[in-house]
């Protein structure tokens, strides 16, 4: 299959999958992103749906990037995002200067457009929160909460960072399975509502979690826990009719594992996200974690 045909097939898959959750895919919005990154040739491609209020009405696609692709530069030069004086525009280059970078990936919504860039630190080379907090463009809320994370033994456990250009926020990922005591304590210390028993039951199978920080608040905005499942509907939670319909009817990656993320917002909204794969990596540590990039493909 030629490159153009592969890209067309991927676009059709995105369009078809988005329709399962009643989201209309705009070719004018999606095609420039796929073409800019030659997305069909990337190693790992995933689709994601969510039932939270903020993401309702959109459908997301994420994919890994081959070595040598500069994700932010590609986005700027192709008009996927606008150049900005906001610190979010400088954070990736600062991370690249101060930290060893193993690989990267991008995320977009078929409605909102280009959203996020992930960077992955080398296997086993976790980054310290103090190092990340020292970056000029990092949200000051990280420095404000370093001690909080340190109390839970997480000060040197960051292995992935995500920069969200659409919402102007940062995600930091910790590959550490949480226990119920830690989950309750984290929520209490951060000021988030107590998770329900259903959420705590879901977290028993979690492989790790991530936090969300922004430049607009001194607080950690949320904690999200991730679990892998062959059949997401078998998890001890009610994912909601939209996610369950998608999980049962998506045509791609039917036999591949799925990733489910659960979180509680500051308002008490409890929600879940499902990640299914159009192209699933057959091996690699990151494949098992469910990231959009497999460690073995770097």
Automatic annotation (TrEMBL):
<dbReference type="InterPro" id="IPR020965">
    <property type="entry name" value="Prenyltransferase_CloQ"/>
</dbReference>
<dbReference type="InterPro" id="IPR033964">
    <property type="entry name" value="ABBA"/>
</dbReference>
<protein>
    <recommendedName>
        <fullName>Prenyltransferase</fullName>
    </recommendedName>
</protein>
<keyword id="KW-0637">Prenyltransferase</keyword>
<comment type="similarity">
    <text>Belongs to the aromatic prenyltransferase family.</text>
</comment>
<dbReference type="InterPro" id="IPR036239">
    <property type="entry name" value="PrenylTrfase-like_sf"/>
</dbReference>
<keyword id="KW-0808">Transferase</keyword>
<dbReference type="Pfam" id="PF11468">
    <property type="entry name" value="PTase_Orf2"/>
</dbReference>
<dbReference type="GO" id="GO:0004659">
    <property type="term" value="F:prenyltransferase activity"/>
</dbReference>
């Amino acid at each position: 299959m030629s490159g153009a045909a592969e890209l067309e097939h991927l676009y059709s898959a995105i369009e078809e999958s988005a329709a399962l959750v009643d989201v209309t895919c705009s070719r004018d919005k999606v095609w420039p992103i796929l073409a800019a990154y030659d997305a069909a040739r990337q190693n790992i491609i995933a689709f994601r749906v969510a039932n939270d209020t903020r993401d309702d009405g959109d459908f997301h696609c994420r994919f890994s990037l081959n070595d040598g692709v500069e994700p932010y530069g590609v986005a700027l030069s192709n008009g996927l995002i606008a150049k900005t004086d906001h610190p979010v525009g400088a954070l990736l280059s600062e991370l690249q200067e101060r930290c060893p970078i193993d690989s990267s990936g991008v995320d977009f919504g078929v409605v909102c457009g280009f959203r996020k860039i992930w960077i992955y630190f080398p296997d086993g080379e976790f980054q310290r929160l103090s190092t990340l907090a020292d970056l000029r463009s990092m949200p000051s809320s990280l420095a404000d909460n370093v001690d909080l994370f340190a109390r839970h033994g997480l000060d040197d456990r960051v292995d992935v960072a995500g920069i969200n250009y659409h919402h102007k926020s940062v995600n930091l990922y910790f590959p550490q399975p949480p226990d119920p005591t830690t989950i309750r304590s984290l929520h209490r210390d951060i000021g988030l509502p107590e998770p329900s028993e259903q959420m705590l039951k879901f977290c028993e199978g979690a492989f790790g979690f991530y936090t969300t920080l922004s430049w607009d608040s001194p607080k950690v905005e949320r904690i999200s826990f991730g679990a892998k499942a062959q059949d997401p509907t078998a998890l001890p939670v009610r994912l909601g009719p939209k996610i369950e319909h998608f999980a049962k009817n998506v045509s791609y990656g039917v036999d591949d594992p799925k990733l489910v993320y659960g979180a509680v917002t500051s308002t008490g909204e409890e929600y879940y996200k499902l990640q299914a794969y159009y192209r699933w990596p057959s091996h690699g540590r990151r494949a098992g974690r469910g990231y959009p990039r497999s460690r073995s493909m770097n």
